[in-house]
Write a structure and sequence with these properties.
Rossmann fold; disordered N terminus; alpha/beta; 342 residues; disordered C terminus; 42% helix
Length: 342
């Protein structure tokens, strides 16, 4: 009989030793919190040195160093792959797909050598019939690389994730908070199925105890389907704020990323791949996971409220930068203007 993560309190002798990469990230930190609250001892991978706790052993390793990574994975039966390469300067974001492939290849080789029995991966919701952005194409290819070895992989493909530190959500949130009149490209009409970060994490944890999820790909989204414009209007309504949206079809993703860089603390190098990924619809076409792991998914409004409360108690810093000076703002305005002319 399959066990339920939600209905069982596990002891330290839980059946799996768990490894979580991206341990301090948006998803990884929440997953570790959920696993340890159920009695697990978890090994978390981090790029920097972090003090271990009673239930979490943090290991510092470079994912591009195969020897370090193999050593870090030793003893793990289940490994969560939550590594994403997006942030950086212009040359870096253009090459993030190559870095992601190398990371995935190294992780698979290290996991194989370390004797890992199962990999669980969180990627992005994609439509295989469409021409994907480099960002989303890379997410799909990472899943294919991880599944190309002998270790069974469970892959979750999520639509936009709503949470205090989510990159795409943060970008849209800052735009709504700082603008009353918004000039937007055509991607604001793309359809999404936003899902709360807590619901994503529950899926990741619950699948441990459902054998039918092993070796499968699942699409996950919340109960609401809406365009990005509707999502921003929903957030504006939550703030009791009027939002006026003017759509300009010829506004490019490059120009959009610089506009986001100007208006919000989200860097253009992060905004560009995020905006590229918003061009296509990201809605669930196969909801089979809801039958295997049934749960009451949070609405967009509920997700926004929870994310807002989380930000009040612990302001997100991952996508923030030092406040711009007047000179830097003027410099960026000129840059955006010149790009628009070009």
């Amino acid at each position: 009989m399959e066990q339920s993560f939600q209905n069982t309190v596990f002891k330290q002798s839980a059946p799996y030793s768990i490894f979580v990469s991206g341990a301090t990230g948006f998803i990884g930190s929440r997953l570790i919190s959920l696993l340890t609250s159920s009695g697990y001892t978890v090994t978390g991978l981090s790029r920097r040195k972090i003090k271990s706790t009673n239930n979490v052993k943090y290991v510092q390793a470079d994912v591009f160093d195969l020897k370090q990574l193999t050593e870090a994975l030793k003893g793990a039966e289940v490994a969560y792959y939550l590594l994403h390469s997006m942030e950086g300067d212009k040359s870096q974001w253009q090459e993030f797909a190559t870095r992601e492939k190398t990371q995935a290849q190294n992780f698979l080789k290290a996991a194989t050598d370390a004797g890992v029995k199962r990999i669980i991966y969180l990627g992005g919701l994609v439509n295989d019939s469409l021409s994907l952005s480099p960002h989303m194409k890379s997410r799909k290819e990472v899943g294919e690389i991880l599944a190309s070895g002998g270790i069974p992989v469970t892959e979750f493909r999520a639509s936009l994730i709503i949470g205090a530190q989510g990159g795409s959500y943060a970008m849209l949130r800052y735009l709504v908070e700082r603008l009353r009149i918004m000039v937007c490209p055509s991607w604001v009409k793309s359809l999404a199925q936003p899902i709360a970060v807590d619901d994503v994490v529950k899926y990741l944890a619950e699948c441990l105890y459902h054998q039918s999820t092993i070796g499968k790909i699942f699409e996950v989204g919340g109960p609401d389907k809406m365009t990005y414009e509707e999502l921003m209007r929903t957030y504006a309504a939550f703030l009791n704020k009027n939002l006026f949206v003017i759509q300009i079809p010829f506004l490019t993703t490059r120009l959009s990323s610089y506009w986001v860089d100007l208006i919000t603390p989200v860097k253009a190098s992060l905004a560009r791949p995020l905006i590229d990924s918003l061009v296509h619809d990201t809605v669930v076409t196969d909801d089979s996971i809801t039958k295997i792991i049934p749960m009451k998914l949070k609405s967009v409004r509920e997700s926004i409220e929870i994310a807002t409360n989380d930000m009040k108690s612990s302001p997100p810093v991952s996508e923030l930068r030092t406040e711009k000076t007047g000179f830097k703002i003027n410099q960026k305005i000129i840059q955006v203007f010149l790009i628009a002319l070009g």
